[in-house]
Amino acid sequence: MANKKRKVLLVGWDAADWKVIDKLMDAGLMPAFKSVVDRGVRGRLATLDPPLSPMLWTSMATGVRPYKHGILGFVEGDNNGAIRPISSHGRKVKAFWNMFTMEGLKSNVVGWWPSNPVESINGVMVSNRFQQEKKGKETIDLEDWDLEPGNIYPESMTERLSELRIHPSEITGNLVMPFVPRAIELDKKEDKRLTVIAKFLAHSASLHAACTELIDTTEWDITAVYHDAIDHFSHAFMKFNPPRMEGMDEEAYDLFKDVVKGAYVYHDMMLERLLSQIDDDTTIMIVSDHGFHSDHLRPTHVPQVPSGPAIEHAPYGIFVAAGPGIKKGEEIYGASILDVTPTLLTMYDLPIGRDMDGKPLLDIYEEKKEVKYIDSWEDDERFGGEIVVAEQVDERTNEAALQQLIDLGYIDDLAIKDGQDGDKIREAQLKATVKENNFYLAKSYASGGEFDDALELLLELEDRAKPDFRYLIEIVNASVKTKRFPLAEEYINYIRKDKLMADNFLDILEAKVQIGLNKPGEALKLLESATKNYPESPNVLIDLGKILNTLRESEKAKGVFLEAIRIDPDNPYAHHGVGAAAMAEEDYETALEYFLNAIDRFYQYPLAHLHLGETLAFMKEYELAKSSFEVVATIAPTLPKTYRWLYDLNEITGDTEKAKHYKSIIAEFDLGERMVITGLPGKELNDVLQQLKESDRSIFGADDLLGNDLDVTDQEWLEKIKEDLIYIPLGFIGSLPSFYSYRILFVEESIEGVTDFFNKRMKLRAGTFNKEMIEAVERQERVGRTWLNQQPNLDIIYIHQGEELNSELVQKFISN
Amino acid sequence: MKDKKQNEEVVIMFKGKPFKVPPGGSLGVLALGNIGIRAWKKAKKEYQESQKDGE
After folding, report:
1. Domain count across chain B
2. Structure pTM?
3. Which of A294, A493, A564, A705 is the most exposed place for a label (fewest CB within 10 A)?
């Protein structure tokens, strides 16, 4: 049993963003929030894709990704063939309030999305529809404003909490004035912008009143409250926030420029009250599920597709924690929304499920925290609460909640117009909802690295009769990730032929396919053209930088990534790109700095940790390198290269037990050792290959010096080669998969020898000088050598002439 | 924290200081949560009754 004296107040502010908060704290406008930051730790919470709040807040409350927890969008099908707002029925796993109930801890949970109908937990639960004042399209008058069943557990609390609600009609002009100082110039009843401010304010005030009441009047171990108002205020008014966006009407800007600021300040005032209710023994955590673009990254256009407004969401939410045992005035890095529940569990010394996708944020603690693990909370059959009302919600209440989502632009208008067949329309709506949720499920798979599952689902969903560009983009991306390049090409051709997407955007997509097909030159052309059309798009610049890195145009790549960082300083991929460019140039100090930047911005980024580990290994910081590779092994356990590094590094540092452990892991996936001959094409290499061809060993590629018949885009290309010896041109050496280990025979060739070879091949006079060709050959050699030097899974010897092949050492090396 | 009537105004104590609750409400009142809203509803009711009394 956990110690009951430990208390946690968890405050959720949907879409709260550090860029806005930091400015307001600096201006002295969020003193309560600042007081928590000053006496605790702060950090950023990486969001998940798709960044849709019901999915995210459920991930926050469960520690698992949406494809595990089952909440997949804003709406769901009910048992009567209609649709309804997403409810607690859809959640397939336990939330922290269930775990705490099982442990005898008392929870107050207020407004969590989705939490309707409520569950019979040990404590009190107030659903996310508690504050709803509408039924169908109609607003219920204050006098008739009853609370539906399923909103409060235990029911005995209903009357007391219900009386604390504020109806939007009660919000007077002087309450709106702090948000819109010139509100008096507008007609409150006619101007919808004032109406929505009143509604957002009433809803948050109602939830806050319920929360403060429960803190004051109940015994509790954890109180968790969720407010959606910052998200709603931001979607409606961030476009008016200073600085004025290009094209924004000056009058409208002047009227509404203070609304977002007002929303944050109001939340700070509510926080001040909460802080006054807790003592020093209570830990407070403030979190958000994603950020919100407030600067030059604000989109100028919101796509007219379901969940289109999510384009305004920024990829990092906020995290603040303060209380006993928690560090003071420090910043933590690499946190994700998936980490909230595991972290909460550690605060009560409760075990973390190994099936959780999140990790506990142990860096927040002043002293080392021992973490307990169990396989899963799902196997524990103790009572954790159950949904108290089954499918009894008034249909009109569902309609009202749906209407709110329509107003926010998250779902399409569902109204059935006169003369339309209602049943048919409802059936179509249900079908569309199931399809849309499956699309989010596929995106969630992709976000979790489960690209095969994502692709399978997307191919099921895709309908050529009703093409949807969002599905097509994801199909191409998942095809590329799973190396199904012909499929990706098929879709690119289909999209281009049927003109389903703007050419420039399609070029960006096609470039990814060309990269996969090992045609970086083609990809470069496409991306250079796209960059001209989207010069301010960090994503396009990042794609271009990646190509340049593939082509080992490191200086150019660095410039492109730095430009992306100028536009979006928090982009982890741009920082990683600079690091990769520096690593290719063996500038390890710079690489280190930028890989750390990338990890700071996105902790769950295996490639950044892997490259950081490699950089540290090259800098001979072996212990730190080991730590980085251990992180990779945790977040991406299927990367074989990680274990080869861990084996090598533990051998170097004399940690034989660990080396043995990693060797045993390598043995599980290692496909064996291959003997590879490589080098730049020329006389010496040709001599060596012809000599080997005449020996009793079988050899692949001896007569294909340029590798024309080699198809490294085939996932199993190396497995298909059965010969003893394999010739791989130096230009393809980076394609060797890490599931094998290698012995490499590198045949040195002078640049003159290579140009001589090409000139003869092109039937030109020997010695013809071609500057571009020489530069290309030199670059290829530099790239190949750097790659070979940076791999953990190969032994290499170098020879300069065909004659050296017969030396005892080389013969032994080849025949080993 | 307790409510008291002062010259027809409802006043609540927050952090040891008196906090006036106008019948029209204020952001500060809303931010006080349960105590603010109860006091505001009371202030509104008293104001409405005083208006009736004055008629």
Report:
1. 1
2. 0.81
3. A493
